[in-house]
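Hi Y.,

Following your request, here is the sequence exactly as I used it, all 210 residues.
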Amino acid sequence: MPKTNIKHIAIAGNIGAGKTTLTNMLARHYKWTPHFEDVDHNPYLVDFYEDMHRWSFNLQIFFLNSRIRQLIGIRKGNETVIQDRTIYEDAHIFAPNLYEMGLMTARDFENYTSFFSTLKNLVSPPDLLIYLKASIPKLVDNIQNRGREYEENIRLDYLKRLNEFYNKWIDKYMDGPLLIVEVDNLDFANKDEDFAEVVRRIDAQIHGLF
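Below is the corresponding structure, written out as tokens. Let me know if you'd prefer a different format.
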């Protein structure tokens, strides 16, 4: 595998799609360095799920800042990094969804969007984006199984709207190579053959890039 030519793999997907699990598994398989969302040290996440209108802008700025720092570190480093969630999801899915739901003001949304556009010009897109596409029942099942307390208040309509934004974004994604993995009928966490199929598809993508 041409590791020297590929530095940044990113995994995108809705809440509960399996991003963190697959990030861990691929990092072990390929000897890549995993980068995760720091949900345990996010000072806004619990407040956000209790009062989305009040904390939406703060949360999105926190995510944007942390992911920009990650991307700068990835390009400066010598390792191949696999990243759990991307900077694009904040800007194309979560922020516009909050705005359309009336949970972020127009002033905050315009400020955030302008800030993202500025920062996007300073970083490079991932060498490969892997999108985990999942139905609402699959997402709900995964969320319930992992039992994170702060996710107990996530509404079904919120997940549905996020899925719609994800699909619109992926349909128009032109920033770099893209691999869509439909996870409804895959259990890569527990079935070796399912994980092997994901790896086979990634290998095909990576070898096809160079």
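The chain has eight helices and five strands.

Thanks again,
Q.
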